[in-house]
Amino acid sequence: MNLKEVGRVHSPYKKKGDAPFQGRMEDIEARIEILEEFAPALKDIEDFSHLFVLYWAHEAKRETLQNRTPYDQDPQARHGVFATRTPNRPNPINLGIVDLVRREGNVLVVRGLDAFDQSVVVDIKPYSGKVDAISQASSRRAHEKKED
Amino acid sequence: MNLKEVGRVHSPYKKKGDAPFQGRMEDIEARIEILEEFAPALKDIEDFSHLFVLYWAHEAKRETLQNRTPYDQDPQARHGVFATRTPNRPNPINLGIVDLVRREGNVLVVRGLDAFDQSVVVDIKPYSGKVDAISQASSRRAHEKKED
Q: Which of A39-48, A90-99, A108-117, A138-147 has the lowest mean pLDDT?
């Protein structure tokens, strides 16, 4: 299973420490530049207010199976990586949910993406408020809001 | 960018036509069997009521950039694949949001997954009702509820 680059992120987050812990809390705009060859795949994307963005975490440690997480009630607790949103995981695909601010040709201007500059985008999907918004979803983890 | 299998779906959907158009509308249970070597990555996953499941659409047509979609107001309209949830896309990673019913060792019993039996799972992430549920997300597409 091989992934190909379909685009790149242009964001103000240039290095570790720049990115907010939770991108959706921030109002910073980023640009997703889709490669020309894939631009036809953007047709009608302006129909949607929000998008899923899948991008590759190229610096991730793929052998990590358990991790501590920031803001955990117990800072020593290790959780399985499938129970966290850390980029360190066997297949380091990050999932962001963004507001689509506008489209400029093959560039999507988005808000709420905490990806590093030059992150490789592998997929974009529309987010449906009717199907994907599960407000009753719950977590027993302390500080869940910040933690994942 | 290479993906590795972390698990398999066991579901009642054996072939095209079996799967519902929108998995989340259905109450059918499926099982996600995580490979033993990745089982430690499941630690504390029971903390979450809902999960994102990323799985590979091995029969997808990766060269497809525009597609018709079922239930479209205009059945002849072609949309860019990034503006649909079709598995046919440059990187055929399907994204499901499921209810975690229970964990049985390295098996997750889930509800709302419309994956075919034997689908290869590449990642699992916790879903946060506080961060990921954007009920105001909107679509201008007709029949949006069924369509994506």
A: A138-147
B107 close contact with A: CB closer than 8 A:
no
**Percentages of chain A per state (helix, strand, coil), in multiples of 5:** 15, 30, 55
Determine whether the interchain pair A82/B54 forms a contact, defined as Cβ–Cβ distance below 8 Å.
no
Handedness of CA A138, A142, A143, A144 (dihedral sign): negative
Question: Tell me, what's the ipTM?
Answer: 0.90
- The span from the CA of A32 to the CA of A118, in Å, is 9
Q: What is the pLDDT of residues A108-136, one digit of tens each?
A: 999 999 899 999 999 999 999 999 999 89
| Burial bucket for residue A59 (CB in 10 Å: 0-12, 13-18, 19+) | exposed
A108-A109-A112-A113 Cα dihedral, nearest 10 degrees: 50
Kindly state the greatest CA–CA separation across chain A. Answer: 48
Scanning the structure block, which residue is given the tokens 């939770």?
A22
pTM, 2 dp: 0.91
Residue among A5, A42, A82 with most chain B CBs within 10 A, to mutate: A82
Instruction: Compare CB distances from A137 to B49, B54, B144 and report the shortest one's residue.
Output: B49
Q: Which among A1, A126, A138 is the nearest to B129, CB-wise?
A: A138
* Structural contact between residues B70 and B143, judged by C-beta atoms closer than 8 angstroms: no
Provide, as residue numbers in chain A, all residues whose Cβ is less than 8 Å from the Cβ of B45. 80, 82-83
Tokens 């302390």 belong to: A142
Region of A47 (left: φ > 0; alpha: ψ -120 to 50; beta: rest) is alpha
